[in-house]
Amino acid sequence: MPTPILQVRDLRTQFAADGGVVKAVDGVSFELYPGESLGIVGESGSGKSMTALSILRLVPDPGRIVSGQVLFRDQDLLQLTGEEIREIRGRDIAMIFQDPQSSLNPVLRTGFQVDEAMLAHGRPKRDARSRTLELLKKVRIPAAESRYKDFPHQLSGGMRQRAMIAMGLANAPAILIADEPTTALDVTVQAQILELLGDLNRELGTAIVMITHNMGVVAGLCSRVLVMYAGEIVEQGPVEQIFENPQHPYTWSLLRSIPRVDALRHERLRSIEGIAPDLLQPPSGCRFHPRCPFRIEKCFHDEPRLQDVAMGQQAACWVMMKRAREEMGADKLIDIRPGAASGVHPGEIA
Amino acid sequence: MLTRGTLIYISQRLVLIVFTVLAVSSAVFLGIHRLPGDALFNEHLHGTEYQNVLHHYGLDLPLWQQYTNYISGMFLHGNLGESFVNRGVQIAPLVLREATVSAEVGLFALIFTIGLGMLLGVVAAVRQNTWVDYVLSTTSVIGYSMPSFVIATFLILFFAVWLDNTTQGAFYFKIGWTGTYGSIGEIWLPAFALGFPYASIVARLTRASMLEVIRQDYIRTARAKGLRETVIMVRHALRNALIPVVTILGPLAIGIITGGVIIENIFGIPGLGKEFATSILNRDYNIVIGVFTMYAALIGIANLGVDLLYVVIDPRIRY
């Protein structure tokens, strides 16, 4: 195993809210290896974006990173001064965002906004400009010279996201964090942007952290995936393995909720019962138990930890899908209400 | 920036200003002839002497003819007639000079309004919910609750009277106006009095607008690029925050122009506002019409200037 370029250890990010503290990221640990592309998936509010923003210390007010370490090249990013982290941002670790419409400044020329990423790290002006033109071509923006002078509102959505990617790659960073970069785009453009990111990952060796709620995006781009639920990682491992043999019921449910081309005609699409938990008062025990069809009594009060389930794959569950398949008939499950497969309902516990 | 469309827009607006000026001067001309009183009353003229003077001003003609003479004189020869009180004094150069003086004071007031307002607004936003913010916010509430003539009175009391007394005349601010256009030393106090209430409004608006803008996604992008905080605030936040400020600049400019009437009279500045008051008291109707006409033109041009500012500040707006 090579040494990881980024190590996140027990990261906790919290928001002070009216009724208490929202634990948006609650003890997340993972590694990122050079040149790798890692997916982080989860529903809205699972803490995936906050994890990404915490790495570069861009958590919006009133959010605070309360503990943990983010080790990049042997320094803890969370301990750096404001000026030191500023130098890391955009130079060593770059980030692109969900909505390219609102993420580009409407009153500045697109090309100049790419220039700025380099000017901020001491590159001379003329040099920056010629590199910007080169980058705009690299991200396949046609007529780069005239696009350079355009304002963001004069570009299409896909074009804007390409410009954002050019901005992200400006200083040839070691890591590019992409926070749902395709969510605001239409499907054909999504595919183009993913292809572009994949190519850049292979050509330039930039490690990519892909934040998404879309399992299809992960399948297309990533080699490894982290599944987040309610601020915690519930499963992680190589993409093929997770897709083929998910061990956490949440991952299993997520995968079942994707429409498939090769599905039987009458097979219904499965959703996940219930709603994402309130992070002000997260459920006791396993946070997924209020929505889990396979829960057992232990799930209500004991919190499971990540444990190895296969080569490179870890999941945090008291039951695991292996047992759910063998003992609870998970493969043929129609009723997916909480406790349906295991027969454990709250009233019977008391 | 000056595209063909913008030039067309400017010429359209200029034509519109001409029509506005025509409408204002016509309304004032016709209205003023319905008023009682006589500018020549104090001269105690009688008989042919009186008739000669009436003939000199064309006042013996029927009203419609007086009107057409006045309008054609204004638009064809730039002639606004002659003063009733000071015989032989042409009004056009007089009010033009006075309008320049008023514009000068107004421009300085506008610099105070925008400069001071923006500065205070940005500082209050960046230091949100600290004592700096509270002091600035309180100051701006006081600023826009007080009319400019009250502020002017306090400024005179402090800078001219109190300073003079406490320093035994060694250092104080002289209230007055030398020459036609005054001097920087004489202009800043009236300009400050005129601009301060509006500066307070601009400060409040800038603060609110900055707080709105710094939550935007593109500010996060700017941070993620590794830009310095001052660059983010000035280049990325302030430019966007100014868009709503420019919107109220139109009404503010008008407020400054009309507010000048009071300030000029308090500080004794020989501008359009001073003439406005004097000419009405003298019943010098020709000058009254001329003053109104100049005000209409001044306000029209100020509004056009503000609308053109949009183009400079927001690239999404093109005329």
- N→C terminal distance of chain A: 47 Å
Share of helical residues of chain A? 25-40%
The termini of chain B sit apart by: 10 Å
Helix-strand category of chain B: mainly alpha
Can you summarize the main beta sheet of chain B?
none
Strand and helix order of chain A: EEEHEEHEHHHHHEHEHEEHHEEHH
Structural class of chain A: alpha/beta
Radius of gyration of chain A: 22 Å
- The second-level CATH architecture of the largest domain in chain B is Orthogonal Bundle
Order of helices and strands of chain B: HHHHHHHHHHH
Question: What is the highest CATH level, the class of the largest domain in chain B?
Answer: Mainly Alpha
What do the pLDDT scores of chain A average to? 86
CATH fold label of the largest domain in chain B: MetI-like fold
Classified in CATH, the superfamily of the largest domain in chain B is MetI-like
What about the largest sheet of chain A? 8 strands, mixed
Number of domains of chain B: 2
Short account of what is shown:
The complex is a heterodimer of chains A (350) and B (319). Chain A has 350 residues and is α/β, with parallel strands linked by helices.
Describe this structure in words.
The complex is a heterodimer of chains A (350) and B (319). Chain A has helices at 48-55, 82-88, 100-103, 110-119, 125-138, 144-149, 157-169, 187-204, 215-221, 239-244, 249-256, 320-328, 346-349; strands spanning 6-17, 20-32, 37-41, 63-72, 75-76, 93-96, 175-179, 207-212, 224-229, 232-238, 307-310, 313-315. Chain A is an alpha/beta fold. In chain A, strands 6-7-8-3-9-10-12-11 form an eight-stranded mixed β-sheet, with helices on both faces. In chain A, strands 2-1-4-5 form a four-stranded antiparallel β-sheet. In chain A, helix 5 (125-138) crosses helix 7 (157-169). The mean pLDDT of chain A is 86. Chain B has two domains: 20-91, no CATH class; 99-313, MetI-like (MetI-like fold), CATH 1.10.3720.10. Chain B is built from eleven helices and no strands. Chain B has helices at residues 4-32, 47-56, 63-77, 91-126, 131-145, 148-166, 184-213, 217-224, 229-267, 272-282, 285-313. Classes of the chains: A alpha/beta (350), B mainly alpha (319). The A-B interface holds A 56, 58, 60, 82, 86-91, 94-95, 97, 99, 102-108, 116-117, 120-121, 151, 153, 164, 167 and B 215-218, 220-229, 231, 235-236, 239-240, 313-316.
